[in-house]
Design brief:
Elements lengths: L17 H28 L2 H23 L4 H30 L7 H22 L7 H30 L3 H46 L1
Length: about 220
């Protein structure tokens, strides 16, 4: 009779590594700092893309903190954390897309120089984060969600830089609105992937527990 009345199975990296935890702490600090930089910069420049990205930085700071807290907890808890983060991304996407449509009806062209300069700083911060997390990108839903958020942020920041260039060239607001819309769509895509993986992990864990219970009863 097996000591744990269950079946062993290979599991993805779950974050239980001192090096990974240190990386998470560094990335949380980076994201929180960039939230304030982009928030004030977005307000000063009148840029929806920067404001959208600042909200993403704030959301990432919170979700990375959750990721750090649940490391080492049972798979079901980590999967539920991933599920929560996926749902949070859907909420952020809804805000970004809603704000973008609202901004279409408001006059005013974002200030391209400020927008571009902050976009470059944010891009550098997120590339550093993504590189630090690269070796952990194929972990469980909790770990993978951290990688996807950092990758999305780097892509979003690059898009902000391109939008600033478009605004400088056209003196129009549409590049900013276009980028904000693309970022919202990217959030939806990543949220869907995180929710799907989290749901699979929860289903697999329930199945494993049921199988373990059946084995225990058979061996009594």
């Amino acid at each position: 009779m097996s000591g744990d009345c269950g079946c062993s199975a290979n599991q993805s990296f779950d974050g239980r590594s001192p090096a990974y935890k240190r990386i998470l702490i560094v990335i949380i600090a980076i994201n929180l700092g960039m939230f304030f930089v982009e928030l004030f910069g977005g307000l000063a420049a009148g840029s929806m893309a920067l404001l959208a990205d600042s909200l993403d930085f704030l959301g990432d700071s919170a979700t990375y903190t959750i990721s750090l807290i649940v490391i080492g907890m049972p798979l079901a808890v980590r999967a539920k954390a991933g599920l929560f983060k996926g749902i949070s991304l859907f909420a952020i996407a809804a805000w970004v897309l809603g704000s973008t449509f609202y901004r279409v009806f408001i006059e005013g062209v974002p200030e391209a120089l400020t927008m571009g300069a902050i976009g470059v700083a944010a891009f550098a911060a997120n590339v550093i984060s993504a590189v630090l997390l690269l070796k952990y990108k194929d972990g469980d839903s909790n770990v993978r969600s951290v990688w996807l958020c950092s990758r999305n942020d780097a892509i979003g920041n690059l898009a902000v830089i391109l939008a600033a260039s478009g605004i400088a060239a056209t003196d129009a607001a549409w590049p900013d609105l276009l980028v904000a819309g693309i970022m919202g769509s990217l959030f939806i895509h990543s949220a869907t992937k995180i929710v799907q993986q989290s749901w699979r992990e929860l289903s697999d864990e329930r199945q494993r527990q049921n199988t373990g219970s059946d084995n225990c009863r058979e061996n009594l």
